[in-house]
Amino acid sequence: MASIVDTSVKNFNSTMSGAPALSGTAGSLIALLDAVLVNGFDIKAASALTVSGGIASMPFIGSHSAQVESVISITGITGAYASLNGEQKVTSVAAGVVRFATSLADGAASGTISFKMAPLGWLKPFAGTNLAAYKASDVAASGMLLRVDDTGTQSARVRGYESMSDINNGLGPFPNETQMAGGGYWAKSVAASSAAVPWAIHGDGRLFYFTAAPGVANTPAAQSGVTRVFGDMLPLRPGGDPYACYLCYSNATSSVNQIDAGVGSGGDVLRFAAPRDFTGLGSSVLHAKYPYTFSSAIAVSGLSGAFGPFPSIVDGSLMTSRQFLASNSGSAPPRADFPGVYHCGQTGVWDTFKFLDTAPAAGVLAGRTLQALPTSNSGLSTGSTNTNTGVLMVDRTGPWR
After folding, report:
1. Interior CA angle at 46 toward 42 and 52, to 5°?
2. CA-closest candidate to residue 288, choices 267, 305, 274
3. With CB atoms 3.0 to 4.6 Å apart as the test, which of 13, 133, 187, 283 could cross-link to 255 if both were Cys?
């Protein structure tokens, strides 16, 4: 690993200057996933690279998508500093310069240097017109595939597979046809138009979270959103659980209503599909998600009153909980935990934290940065208030595993 710090967790969002746009047009989600999962984006030439006091600085002309704690990929360095090629986590960004930490001695690098936003390192083994299948390349990953049908405008159809032979055929679908005919839905926009909507993707080599605020296309004040996920969770079975790969989806046909059972939405709804149960037997099984606080299984993150209002009147803190998946509604034992995301068990969180706002983590997560993702308990075209919009917190620093 080129970086002296962990770069396994990567974060991307629509405020990055060179990021792809998400809209209510066919193919926009696949273009976004291609850039973030597979290819990277915003290639820029660096005019130099110098190291001073443990900080490497790369000046460039114009603007770039790099943000603090995002990960860039560098190529073209030769000579004594060639080990800086590869992934680096950004420590600061100023006008025309990006910086990261290094253990190398002071000096200047040589070569024809360029950099881009580093992708999550996933594969795209199959494709068609506005169709794509993605697969984690991490050798520790389960090897499941995500098929995305992005031929529609306001929503894409999604389904997981244990294996695929081409873009239209696969074995071990989850959810299967009985559970959700045609696959689940991921909302892109409430309008069939090219109007861009806010989005964020956080992930590692085995899982990613996709968040969008689709209502902005019609109503700028509709900042609430929903977070979906695909990939390998953190299994609780001591011997491992190779089928603890999950796809979170909506079963609502209208993008305005696709807030059901998101990662930060109300729990107790069976909308997380895994290819098999923990024994490895059978076929697709549906799970529900819950926060470990569990005082209100259907609570939306940031709108739950389990711990009272934010900030806590006792110590002023933001109070969060891990989340887990269970194979029944209301009364099943946890099977797997969510990596990197945290349920907010307080009300009024939206008054302080909006989409992509950050806060330093405390306790066992001290030294990491939490980033806010919007949630909702109403339709995605409704103007956001602290009674209909909350936040889910994601650890953008990592590692998650």
Report:
1. 125
2. 267
3. 187
pLDDT digits over 118-134, tens only? 999 999 999 999 999 99
Q: Does residue 1 register a pLDDT over 60?
A: no
Quick check: bond before 175 cis, omega within 30? Answer: yes
Compute the distance between CA of residue 254 and CA of residue 148 in angstroms, rounded to an integer: 17
Residue 85 sits at the vertex; the CA angle it makes with 81 and 90, to the nearest 5 degrees, is 100
Phi-psi region of 308 (alpha: psi -120 to 50; beta: other; left: phi over 0): left
Where b means 16+ CB within 10 Å and e means fewer, 164-173 reads beebeebebb
**What does the pLDDT look like over 47-76, one tens digit per residue?**
999 999 999 999 999 999 999 999 999 999
What mean pLDDT comes out for the span 275-301? 88
- Tokens at 84, concatenated: 């800086």
Instruction: Find how far residue 85's CA is from the centre of its chain.
Output: 25
